[in-house]
């Protein structure tokens, strides 16, 4: 019994001093494992006489139960302590601001749409929209395209199959000008609108994609002339590129829906790998524009002798490339989140003239 008493005292001290779960498990194996000290005592009961077993059996089993209970209690205490330590180490203070993370960004094209819309809204323009799928009248005929114009050919326009009954072919609009036609047909002058949206043409290279974005403007009123157009566009470019130094020139051009027609160039400097507006001696073609053709006004039921107007169109994706230094247009449609993380904008800061556009 003296041996049992001293063994119990030894094991009790070992259990109490176990600093962690692995140390406690080592004590358990040393006492209650297959070759443990208590297990060996239980095995020795077979060699004892019946009288000895009556005395030693209960004493050894009692020791086993007491040591097992001590180990279980110590294990529960160590597990509770470990859990408290883990919770303390992983504690998160919810009152602190979250770490900066960028889960989503505004695409540069959408950013430029918002910037242009803010500028035009300040200038008194309303936003008009129309369908992506158009008919020949709104996309070509009403805009003074001749029947054999190259833009009507299959190599430039995405046509649908002809209608089984009428034979008419619908198409994906090649510009947002059909929105201008729909606006003139549905509203009486004066009209001052911009038409942002997607457009489609069969073209793909470093500066062209089959689907791209445009924003077009239209003003219809009495006594409208090229001076109004020039002021509007120079004001637009100055505010968009956030500079007061805008020098422009208008080169004669041809568009079926405007007469006279022009392409607008702005003075710039391309040296040093940067585009600087209003500096240097280079010129950059930025948009097409002109006075609304009388035939377009007549097709929409407006008397060109009473009302005149101007129209212009800009490639939104190209403007984003110029302003934010995007080298290849195709990357803007590649769905690469790394690219968007680099070029994207915060969705929580809307462009406005008061706090700035970009």
Quick overview:
With about 350 residues, the chain is α+β, with helices and mostly antiparallel strands. It is about 40% helix and about 20% strand.
Give an overview in words.
- The chain has 358 residues and is an alpha+beta fold.
- The chain is 39% helix and 19% strand.
- Strands 1, 4, 5, 6, 7, 8, 9 and 10 form an 8-stranded mixed beta sheet that branches. Strands 2-3 form a two-stranded antiparallel sheet.
- Strand 7 and strand 8 (276-277) form a beta hairpin.
- It starts with a helix and ends in a 15-residue tail after the last helix.
Please render the helix and strand layout as text:
Blueprint (H helix, E strand, L loop, with lengths): L1 H16 L3 H12 L4 H7 L6 H40 L18 H15 L3 E2 L5 E2 L1 H4 L31 E2 L4 H10 L4 E10 L10 E11 L4 H15 L7 E8 L2 E12 L6 E2 L4 E11 L1 H6 L8 E8 H9 L12 H7 L15
Parallel strand pairs: 1-4
Antiparallel strand pairs: 2-3, 4-5, 5-10, 6-7, 7-8, 7-9, 9-10
Helix pairs in contact: 1-4, 2-4, 3-4, 5-10
């Amino acid at each position: 019994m003296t041996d049992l008493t001293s063994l119990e005292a030894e094991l009790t001290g070992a259990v109490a001093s176990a600093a962690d779960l692995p140390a406690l498990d080592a004590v358990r194996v040393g006492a209650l494992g297959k070759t443990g000290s208590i297990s060996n005592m239980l095995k020795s009961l077979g060699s004892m006489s019946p009288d000895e077993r009556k005395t030693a059996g209960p004493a050894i089993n009692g020791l086993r139960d007491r040591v097992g209970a001590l180990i279980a209690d110590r294990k529960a205490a160590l597990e509770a302590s470990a859990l408290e330590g883990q919770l303390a180490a992983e504690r998160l203070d919810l009152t602190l601001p979250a770490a900066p993370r960028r889960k989503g960004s505004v695409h540069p094209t959408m950013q430029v749409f918002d910037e242009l819309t803010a500028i035009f809204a300040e200038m008194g323009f309303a936003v008009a929209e129309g369908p992506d799928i158009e008919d020949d009248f709104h996309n070509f005929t009403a805009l003074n395209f001749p029947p054999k114009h190259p833009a009507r050919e299959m190599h430039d326009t995405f046509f649908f199959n002809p209608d089984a009954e009428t034979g008419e072919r619908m198409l994906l609009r090649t510009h947002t000008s059909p929105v201008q036609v729909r606006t003139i047909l549905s509203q009486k002058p004066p009209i001052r609108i911009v038409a942002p949206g997607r457009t489609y043409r069969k073209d793909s290279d470093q500066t062209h994609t089959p689907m791209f974005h445009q924003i077009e403007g239209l003003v219809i009123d009495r006594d409208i002339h090229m001076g109004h157009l020039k002021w509007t566009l120079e004001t637009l470019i100055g505010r968009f590129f956030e500079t007061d130094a805008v020098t422009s020139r208008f080169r004669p051009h041809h568009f079926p829906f405007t007469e006279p027609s022009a392409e607008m160039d702005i003075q710039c400097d391309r040296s040093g790998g940067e585009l600087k507006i209003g500096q240097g001696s280079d010129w950059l073609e930025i948009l097409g524009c002109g006075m609304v053709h009388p035939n377009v006004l007549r097709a929409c039921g407006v008397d060109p002798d009473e009302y005149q107007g101007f129209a212009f169109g800009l490639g939104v994706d190209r403007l984003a490339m110029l302003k934010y230094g995007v080298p290849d247009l195709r990357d803007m449609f590649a769905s690469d989140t790394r690219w968007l993380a680099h070029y994207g904008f915060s969705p929580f800061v809307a462009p406005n003239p008061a706090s700035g556009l970009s």
